[in-house]
Amino acid sequence: MSNIAFVLGNGESRKGIQIDELKQHGTVFACNGVYRTETPDFLIAVDPKMIFEIAETDYALKNQVWSNFNAQYNKNQRILDYVKWFKPSLGWSSGPTALRMACERGFKDIFVLGFDYQGHQRGGNKHGFGFNNLFKDTRNYKRTKDDATFYGNWMNQTKHCLKDFKDTKFTRVVPEGWFSPKDLLWNDNLSQLTTPQFLEKFEYPYANLDFPFYVVAGNHDYGVLPIALDKTTCEVEYHQVSEKWYFPDRYYTLEVDNVGLFAVDTNILMVDQFIIGDVDADDQKAWFNQAVAENNSMWKFAFGHHPYLSNGPHGNAGNYEGFPISLTPIVNGSKIQDFIEESVCGKIDIYFAGHDHSRQWFDVTCGTEFVVSGAGSKTSSIEGRDNNPTLYEDADLPGFLYVEIDSNLLVGRFFDVNGDMNFERTVLK
Q1: CATH number of the domain that 57 lies in?
Q2: Does some domain include residue 78?
C-alpha cells in the first residue's frame, strides 16, 4: 500500500483537481457533495442532511461512506445497512474527520487540498467574507450570497491532528496568495505548497521516495529561443519550498560523504553568446574550474543535460544533429565539446548526461568516463552516427542507472523497466 493520502475539503482552492488522477498516486479521502461527480476511496459525511441525500442514491451500496451515527438513521434501513460508523464519534466537521481518519489509518505523507479556512473577500462596500464551497447554490449547501461558515472548528480540529500525529508529514496545497493561517504553519510537520505543476509532476509521483533530487536544467526547461528563457528561474525558486527538490542555482556544487558533485547548466554553454538570466558561459566555466580544483573528495562527478559522447539521435557534442561547426555553432554543441575537453577531461571521474533517451556507458575517454542515462520515461534509438565504442548501450527498454560507492569502490548498474540488471561496471580508485 502506498503511504500517501490525499484529504480533500470542498474549498474552491482545489477547483480543477481530479480525484481519479490523485488515486493513481495514493488513497483519497473526500467529503460530502463530492460523491455527486467523483468517487474517492473514502467518502466522509457527518451532516445528517447529506447522509440522507446520499442514501437516496446507490452510491453507498458500491462505495465506502463513513459518518457518525445519529438516532435519525434508525428509520432508514438503507443507511443502517450500508453506511459505516466512526467509533467513537469525534463530533468533528467532515473535512477534519476525514483528515483524522487518514492519520489513524497510518498514512505518513498526507496532502491536504480544499481546506481553505476562509471565505471570499466581498467587493464594494460589503464587509466580511462570502461563502466558499465548490457546491454552493446546490442542495444542502449555502448560497453564494451567504456569509462564510466560521472556520474556527476546522482550524482547531486540524491543529489536533497535527499535534497528535507528529510523525506524519502534512502538506497543504493552495494557490499562490491564498489564505494561510499562521497558527497552523507554526507546526513543524506541516508545510505549504502553492505550485500545481510541481505537485502533479513531482511531489505526488515521488512522495514515497525519501531522498533528495539533485536537479539540472535540460533544453526543455528553457523552452525555444528566443522566448521562454526564464522557466528555469521558477525551478530554482521552487528549491526554497520543497524538501526534496534540490536546485539552489543554475549550476552548483555539493559534497556527499566522499563524493564531490558538480551540477552544470549545459544550456548556458550551448548559447554562450547570449546571457541567460544573470549568468553566461564564461561565468560558469570559471566557477567550475575553481570548484573542482578546491574540492578534495575522493570521487568527483559532473552532471549536465547534454552529453559529450552519444550514439543516440543527438550524437556527440560538436556534432549534435549532424550539423557542422562552421554552419551552426549554437545547435551543434561545439561549446559543450570545448568545455568538456578543457575543464572535465582528466579532472572528473564520471560525467553523467541525458538528452538522448537511451542507456549508454562509454569507456575511459580523455581520462574521464561518460555515461548517458536518459531512458527513464521513454526510449529513442541508437543510431550510431558517431559510432562511439561503448561498454554497454540500449534503447529498446526504458530504464535507469544506479550507482553505489563504498570508499574507493564504485559499482554502476543499468536496470530496465522490468527490474532486471542489464549491465554492471566496477571502478576501483
Answers
A1: 3.90.1480
A2: yes
Residue 227: pLDDT band with limits 50, 70, 90: very low
Question: CA 390 to CA 8: how far, in whole Å?
Answer: 51
For residues 248 and 213, is the Cβ–Cβ distance under 8 A? Answer: no
Which residues, 6+ apart, have CB-to-CB distance to 30 below 8 Å? 7, 8, 19, 38, 40, 42, 43, 44, 98
Q: Is 82 helix (H, G, I), strand (E, B) or coil?
A: helix
Q: How many domains does the chain have?
A: 2
pTM of the model: 0.68
Complete edge-to-edge strand list for the sheet that includes strand 169-173 = 84-85, 65-67, 42-44, 27-31, 4-8, 109-113, 169-173, 190-193
- What pLDDT is attached to residue 279? 67
Domain limit, last residue, from 173, 203, 233: 203
How far is Cα 14 from Cα 424, in angstroms, rounded to an integer?
A: 46
- pLDDT tens across 112-143, in order? 999 999 887 765 445 578 899 999 999 999 99
Within 28-180, residue ranges assigned H as helices are 48-55, 59-62, 77-82, 94-104, 152-164
Residues 6+ apart with CB under 8 A from 241: 191, 192, 193, 194, 195
Q: Which domain holds residue 120?
A: 4-203
Q: What are the grid coordinates assigned to 262, written together?
A: 558538480
Whether residues 361 and 280 share a domain: the answer is yes
- DSSP character for 279? B
Alpha helices by DSSP H, listed for 124-276, are 152-164, 182-185, 196-198, 219-222, 231-238, 266-270
Q: Which residue has the cell 574521464?
A: 368
Helices (H), ranges, 271-380: 281-294, 334-339
Q: Which of 177, 203, 229 is the last residue of a domain?
A: 203
Q: How far apart are CA 235 and CA 246, in angstroms?
A: 10
Instruction: Establish if 325 belongs to a structural domain.
Output: yes
Local structure of residue 340 (DSSP, 8 states): I
The 10 Å CB-count burial string (b at 16+, else e) for 350-366 is bbbbbbbbbbbbbeebe
Instruction: Answer yes or no: is 133 within a domain.
Output: yes
Q: Which of 413, 403, 264 is nearest to 347 (CA)?
A: 264
Number of alpha helices (DSSP H) and beta strands (DSSP E) in the chain: 13, 22
Domain harbouring 266, CATH code = 3.60.21.10
User: Is there a single domain that holds both residue 353 and residue 323?
Assistant: yes
